[in-house]
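Recall the central idea of this unit: under ordinary conditions, the amino acid sequence of a chain determines the structure it adopts. In this exercise we apply that idea directly, starting from the sequence alone.
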Amino acid sequence: MKFQLRCPSIRWILSWVLILGLFLELSLRLVTAWKEPKGRFMWMLSRNSLQEMGQRDGYRFFTGRKNQRVEYGNIRIDFNNLGYRSTQPEILPKGEDLFRIACFGDSVTLGQDQNEYENTWPGAVEHLVNDPPLSKRVEVLNFGMAHYTYTTNLVNLVLIGEYIQPDIVVFLIGPNDFVCLYTREYEPDGSHDGQWLLPVADATWGFHPIGNILKHSRVCNLVYGSAGRFLVFLEATRLFNFGLSEENLPPRLEKMADHLATLCTLSKALGATPVLCTYIYDKKRLLEIRGEEFVSVLEDVDDTLREVAKEKGAILVEANDQMKDHREYFLDDFHLSAHGGRAFAQILLKGLRDHDLLPPGGSTVPAQTASTD
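Accordingly, the structure predicted from this sequence is:
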């Protein structure tokens, strides 16, 4: 007896694909209802709205959504009227009784993995610097934003410097500035945004009506996120050049030095003291994951900052030697934990006090008078 194999019909295949998809969708929704995803896995279930927290804002590449709260997973970030993370909804012009420290950087400064603002290093600085109170109230403004680079921060200071009138400008160099050195066709001012991968993905998923419907599906987000990361992996060899020759790296370091020097000059023109902070990273973890070459380039960047600080008369804060052997200070290679944010804040404040950059104490202890019998 011969058995004839019957090819399944298209309708039969589509029906089973739909049934399996619905079953998987229900399973994922039950899982997310039972246990909220955390950390780096939130993207798999479309609970990470970090990419949706920004809005285009002229030459600043983008800012956070002004006067809005963005929530993703267990993280909550409040943005002020300027589009930056803050505990106060509006940044007003500075009064005479106010001393302002403006902090610039990327996601390390933003504290994108911290729910409580005090766990970010600018938040920790503000909490520590006013205890005990000084002769002026010290306000610490956080202008850190994911994907920002030294050039974006320079443009940001140009646009908002006159309005905020800072007394101290602190710039913490971060991993995005490191990426600038290694990425092919990457420009630190964001002009590389014409790359096909992310714009096409954003247009397809963020603006198309069908995309807006499908983005609420756990299954669709799982497939879309996995496919997107696979494409990024395939693009990595084309986008990144981790073997930059000695001829190619120095010009990029020179561009970085020029922009940081301009940032220092602008800070002084605004009446503020520029403070440059070198990389903070978990050296042991970085060596294990990425190798010796990465660390050597970071050391080259640190040398560049030292030269700029010396040339421009800026204050240089080097915290890594005091933090590199404490793994609990880091969430990954660069991003700080709550402990790391407070530790860096203490190191930064010590540097500011050592250079007498902060207002004097508001209250003094009365001198003891000699007792008489």
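The longest strand covers residues 98-104.
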